[in-house]
Amino acid sequence: SPLEQQLKDLASFQVIAHRGASGHAPESTMAAYELAHEWNVDYLELDAQITADGEVVVFHDDAIDRTSDGEGAINDYTLEELKALDTGTWFNEENPDSADTAFEGAQMLTLEEVFERFGHDARYYIETKSPQLNPGLEEALVETLEEYDMVKEGRVLVQSFGQDSLLKVHELNADVPLIQLVWYYPSEEDNSRLVEWTGVTPGPEEITDEDFQAIADYAVGIGTNFIYEGEEVIDADFIRQANENGLPVHVYTVNETEEMERLMEIGVNGMFTNYPDRLLELVE
Ligand code: G3P
Ligand code: CA
Question: What are the residue boundaries of the GP-PDE domain, all occurrences included (predicted)?
């Protein structure tokens, strides 16, 4: 089945366009997704949030200030209000070298608009963002995934830092393949706090086969950072042990070619990048 094929494909290296080709075009806009899709990435990565009137939109930050001309919490606004914002012009101001007048006035996307545009011709790596700030997101997301046959057709992974959010998705539809996101620090002490925060795994120094198996009970892979304040937080042993427990490891967010090369050497199974063009060049 297409879903089985998708899971099989996770055994090979995956190029994941982080918020679209967001190094080249404003993140989470159609321009960024169009570009990544043209380049034939394995996944379009997007962050899902819920509007005040219950619509699922594609947007990363909890607040709209950084990447739009509005201000305040995204969840306080209706879709109509969010649609009136310009989510492209900030990029031109911040990135004069990549600026394009076509980005001006870019509208925030709904998840449905992304699905309408690319349909089953793309795969989507969807994050339930800030689950505590987005009540009802899991229900609305799963409903949309089902409406567009995204799960059956092997088109979607759902990722989250919140284990609860992932488990909620599974209660709604047990077939949705899940990715547990983690965030590691270089010190064991800091990592011990993660258990409290995410409900998942101790840090890479202490993680056991049982910990990996506890993730493998509900998830098909792990997404992790690789560096924190210049210090690497995962190594080849971590990847090997995760893989031995059936979990591919996808690393975020890797933008420099040298870092991509080093991470490929230690065996990572995929990367989230704002520059999928750079990564595709290495993979091909
Ligand atoms: O989803 C993987 C990575 O995107 C997590 O970090 O903050 O970019 O959503 P963030
Ligand atoms: Ca994300």
Answer: 13-283
Mutational pocket test of ligand 1: of 272, 273, 274, the residue with most ligand atoms within 8 Å of the beta carbon? 272
Largest CA distance in the chain: 52
Measure 96 CA to ligand 2 centroid, in angstroms: 25
Beta strands in the chain (DSSP E): 14-17, 43-50, 56-58, 109-110, 124-128, 156-160, 178-182, 221-225, 227-228, 231-232, 249-252, 270-273
Ligand 2 is an ion; its neighbours by CB within 5 Å are: 47, 127
- Write the residue with the smallest CA distance to atom 5 of ligand 1: 252
Q: What is the pLDDT along the chain (284 residues), one digit of tens a residue?
A: 999 999 999 999 999 999 999 999 999 999 999 999 999 999 999 999 999 999 999 999 999 999 999 999 999 999 999 999 999 999 999 999 999 999 999 999 999 999 999 999 999 999 999 999 999 999 999 999 999 999 999 999 999 999 999 999 999 999 999 999 999 988 777 787 776 666 667 778 788 999 999 999 999 999 999 999 888 999 999 999 999 999 999 999 999 999 999 999 999 999 999 999 999 999 98
Q: Is the ipTM of this complex over 0.95?
A: yes
Nearest ligand atom owner, CA of 61: 1
